[in-house]
Amino acid sequence: MTESKAVWNRKHLLGLEELSAPEIGTILDTADSFKEVSTRSIKKVPALRGRVVVNAFWEDSTRTRTSFQLAAQRLSADTIDFSEKGSSVSKGETLIDTARNIEAMGTDVIVIRHPAAGSAHLLARSVRSCVINAGDGAHEHPTQGLLDLYTIRERFGKIEGLKVAIVGDIAHSRVARSNVWGLTKMGAQVILVGPATMVGKSFEAMGAKVTNDLDSIIGQVDVINMLRVQFERIKSSQFPSVREFTRMYGLTWDRFQRCKKDVFVMHPGPMNRGIEISSDIADGPQSGILTQVTNGLAVRMAVLYLVTQTQGA
Amino acid sequence: MPSLLIQNGTVLDPSRNLEQRADVLVRDGRIAAIGQNLGDADRTIDATGCYVTPGLIDIHVHFREPGDEEEETIASGSAAAVAGGFTTACCMPNTKPALDNEAQVEFVLRESERVGLANVYPVGAITKGRAGKELAEIGSMHERGAIAISDDGVGVADASVMRKALQYARMFDTVLMQHCEEPTLSGGAMHAGTVSTILGMPAIPAEAEQLMIARDLLLNRTIGCRYHIQHISTAGSVELVRQAKRLGQNVTAEVSPHHLLLTDETCRTFDTHFKMNPPLRTAADVKACIDGVRDGTIDCLATDHAPHLPEEKELEFQYAPFGIIGLECALPLYIKALVEPGHINWMQLIDLMSTRPAKIVQLDKGTLRERADADITIIDPKARWTIDVEQFAGKSRNCPFHGWQVTGRAVATIVSGDVKWNLAHK
């Protein structure tokens, strides 16, 4: 694994679009050292002792919330959980007011998950705490992008030169966007695959290739990252049926046979087994799905650590 | 009423293509004479180095009264208008309740008279409550003084209702102003393009505007109502209007300062001061709008002055309301977008800001002919200043041009012979 010189001077992690390759490298290297902590019998370091981390979630989430919480705890931070359903508009209190109220209790880091794109940026402009974006609408989910990068690097020993396909509802996916930024910055080639209603040519402006034909690229890629199918997209006519989606874009056993022998299969979860991915592949030796979850913890520890070490944080 | 002599300025009157160093004498609220040695007056204004033009007219403003008086009122909106050089403003009916009956029309006219700053003319709703279902009392509102009809904020989505609105409005020869946006393609917060793709933001495609324009032009082809397109914003829309005009259709269009100066790239920081509807489009659309102004496809300039409170705008981008204020900085922004790059000259600018908007809403204004209403704007074309929302006379501050260095400013605004704004006395 290449050791890059540590580069980090950010108080917030809002997206991967604004990060440089050395900054991403710093996070991944830092995650390496934190991953070891999880193998100890006492899985805790004092890096954030006395600091307060708030998980402020305006949207349902199980794994991201749990992962951030555990990451903060392993760094010895105190953690608070805050959750609110629906938009702040309907609640009568604005996002900024809610955040300032939480912050008034003396917080150091706010981890925010919110259904509106740009909400983490709005928060970062309005509070003194460090802000970590845990998913803002369809915009970015930087820690997911980073843990995907980490998992790929761990598997292949590199990211540069790899071909990565991301398959499914790209248009509504913050995971896809963060992956495109991160992967292309680190020198991988990204192919976005989905029906024309779910991935437009405008994604090429981000540096990815776009295709509607999964079978045409299935044999070329080193990594295939399957996104979760959202069933409510049938109602908005993004695709006609689950059956047809699976036929055209599902990672079936048949398609898997046409992949490269060492293809690495990923999924950000939660999976719809038998729909976007068949169970025997998800549970098979080439699946990185659970490793992604494990690595997510180390990556989030690294991010929490780095933002709080920045001057003024 | 005391007489007024405006001395040593350059008179620019697009209504008769007059550009001349001359004095202007105003008596009894009307233009009495233009020329030299016009004798004494009770009051004089020195306009050396300035243009003396027919009063600027903005046919698209939101004064929020009744309903949202904390954002703007007819009084504060009128103050903003004269501070920006506008002598006349047409206010849109998306108030609470909607301006959809003659009592509401009467209210705006009376309140405007009571305020006594700018001429404020109400635009009545096309449909009751602007709901797009049943026609509002267009005839009664027209008789009472509604200067046009519009459901602005939304377009009339139902084609059958729209056809009837065009037919009905045609009887009164009133202008129907359409906010062109097909709702089933809309629902987004910004222009659908590369930037919205990157931001993952729900978006409004250019086709949402073009589809309604195309539909309306088709419906109106045999009806021939005065049909006016509000805040045109896409290259495709401009082309549709160009073709329709070539075929002799009764259509006019307006464009706002922001659609001539800004693109969707500005939304990258999620700053809600760049959120408006129609949304900021691409550089190609901006160029097409400028070309449309140059070749006459676009008939006039209008601000879509849309005041909002800071607390409304300090929200997540997709939850914040659309709209920005425009009255107090429109003139230098149009100069920056159109005159400074050489797209149009000063005479054309005043034509687009006064004479032609007057024609669209059939007002006997936009001219400095003798006996015309003495609505006059005195403009210092060389005044360099910085747009500062804290200095604005209006109530709201939602302006993306705050801090811009601009050139050209209204130094005096005269309505019916009365000086309502004088920069020197500010």
What does the model show?
The complex is a heterodimer of chains A (313) and B (426). Chain A folds into two domains: 21-140 and 293-309, Rossmann fold, CATH 3.40.50; 142-288, Aspartate/ornithine carbamoyltransferase (Rossmann fold, 3-Layer(aba) Sandwich). Chain A has twelve helices and nine strands. By secondary structure, chain A is an alpha/beta fold. With 426 residues, chain B is α/β, with parallel strands linked by helices. The longest helix of chain B is centred in the middle third of the chain and has 15 residues, at 206-220. Chain B is globular. Chain B has two domains: 4-52 and 372-425, Urease, subunit C, domain 1 (Roll), CATH 2.30.40; 55-360, Metal-dependent hydrolases (TIM Barrel, Alpha-Beta Barrel). Chain B starts with a strand and ends with a strand. Chain A binds chain B through residues 17, 87-89, 94-96, 114, 116-119, 121-122, 126, 136-140, 171-172, 174, 177, 200, 202-203, 205-206, and chain B through 193-194, 197-201, 269-270, 311, 314-319.
Describe what is shown at a glance:
The complex is a heterodimer of chains A (313) and B (426). Chain A is an alpha/beta fold and 313 residues long.
